[in-house]
Write a structure and sequence with these properties.
mainly alpha; disordered N terminus; 3-stranded mixed β-sheet; 5 strands; 2 domains; about 5% strand; single chain; two-stranded antiparallel ribbon; 17 helices
Length: about 450
């Protein structure tokens, strides 16, 4: 019989075991708070009538019938389910078991359905418009979050996602406008071809501008070992100042030539766009959204299924060990930080080439910081970060939809809803997640 050797209390493995055994009560507390607050809605503000969820936009292969539910009864049912989810989460925490992702998804879905049923009593919610708008608003967040995931996985905390998005939006607007309104005016091409050429050039310019921001971050953080958070904050302030100055002094006086890009048009993918409910939401979008689908898959696949991904994660977790096996840490960080910047630049291009066909000062409005929150909420995983960005996009679009249908919720609360969701998600629902061990730490070769 083999003897069992006790692990000393100061041993690193013992410390890891103690950390794993720590019970996290963050998620149960947040679940309980939201469940109790939601219960107050039907308790003190019952609403008469029924809520209609319109599940068809008229373009599908066959139309799904409208879903009509009693407002107050549905709210009470949702309240009970939320309390059950909170109780189950507390049970898992008491057993020291991790908080599962599926429980968060179920909780959020029940909360949204219950809240929409209560808020839209007597009205109709166009689900295709709600979900399609949420996807459009989440697209730049997803690109920014993917760039943030790559940066932190390789060991560089990228606080400058906001700067990358803003620089990309500015460059895309200027380059696409100049090419469409100037270079292509005397060229015999069709309107559609001119929009495609100018838009493509604008997207490439956005990627280049965002890569330049990444290079500045890399020079200071990787080469000169400056604190990465400080560099990111300074870059955000710098890009906001530069783009605001150029907008006021250059773009505004010459908007016809420099700030009037032709946006990409949404187009339907035959067959897929006719799938009930999801078809019009996912497959009646602009080309940038379709590119986003591909980029999400490629980043996930490459990060976990290729040698590039293995080296990326190795440098972010233990750069010294990666260096000993021949991986050039600084070079790997630079290249991946540039790749992350290029992906974030796609998100910046979306603002001016798909969302609003012109550049405005500070038009990203904090989207980079929400994308950074999606990185943390998604536990530094491409798929989970994408889901988190979709949640924040949904919360942003929800305020507009509820305002249109005449919801009793104050408009001030709806304006702050996306940021409230961001704060509670990062503070309460992340649980015991741990970022890459070397993220934010400069590597000084011994």
């Amino acid at each position: 019989m083999s003897a069992v050797t006790a692990i000393p209390s100061d041993h690193p493995v013992s410390e890891d075991l103690r950390r794993v055994a720590v019970k996290s009560w963050k998620a149960p507390i947040i679940f309980g708070i939201f469940a109790v607050l939601f219960t107050l809605l039907p308790l003190f503000g019952p609403r008469e009538g029924a809520t209609t969820f319109r599940l068809s936009a008229g373009h599908e292969l066959f139309a799904l019938p409208d879903l009509v539910v009693p407002a107050t009864a549905t709210a009470w049912l949702a309240a009970m389910l939320l309390l059950l989810c909170a109780a189950y989460s507390a049970f898992l925490a008491s057993q020291g078991r991790p908080h599962p992702l599926w429980l968060t998804i179920v909780y959020v879905a029940v909360l949204l359905v219950g809240f929409l049923s209560w808020a839209a009593a007597g009205g109709t919610i166009p689900m295709v418009g709600l979900l399609g708008g949420a996807l459009a608003l989440a697209t730049p967040l997803i690109f920014g979050a993917l760039g943030g995931v790559i940066g932190e996985r390789v060991g560089v905390v990228n606080i400058a996602i906001e700067a990358q998005l803003l620089a990309g939006a500015f460059s895309a607007a200027v380059v696409a406008s100049v090419i469409y309104n100037g270079a292509l005016q005397n060229v015999d091409v069709s309107e559609g071809m001119a929009v495609a050429i100018a838009g493509t050039a604008g997207v490439l310019a956005a990627m280049v501008a965002s890569v330049l921001v990444s290079l500045v971050l890399g020079v200071f953080a990787i080469t000169y070992f400056v604190d990465q958070v400080i560099v990111g904050v300074v870059l955000n302030v710098l890009v906001v100042g530069v783009t605001t100055f150029l907008f006021s002094k250059v773009l505004a006086p010459n908007s016809a030539l420099l700030n009037s890009p032709q946006p990409f048009k949404a187009f339907a993918i035959p067959g897929l766009s006719e799938i009930p409910l999801l078809g019009p939401v996912l497959f009646r979008q602009t080309i940038i959204v379709y590119v986003m689908y591909v980029v999400v898959f490629l980043v996930w696949f490459a990060m976990y299924r290729t040698r590039w991904g293995l080296r990326l994660r190795a440098v972010g977790e233990h750069p010294q060990a990666a260096d000993t096996v021949g991986i050039k840490v600084a070079r790997t960080r630079y290249l991946n930080l540039m790749l992350a910047g290029a992906i974030a630049g796609l998100g910046g291009a979306f603002f001016t080439l798909a969302s609003v066909p012109s550049f405005n000062r500070e038009m990203t409005a904090g989207a980079g910081f929400i994308a950074l929150a999606a990185v943390i909420f998604g536990k530094w995983d491409p798929i989970k970060a994408t889901l988190a960005a979709l949640l924040f996009g949904f919360a942003t679009n929800l305020q507009g939809v509820l305002s249109v249908i005449g919801s009793p919720v104050p408009s001030q609360f709806m304006l702050m809803l996306p940021y409230v969701v961001t704060i509670f998600a990062v503070a309460g629902l992340v649980g015991r997640s741990r970022g890459p061990a070397a993220a934010g730490k400069p590597y000084i070769k011994s």
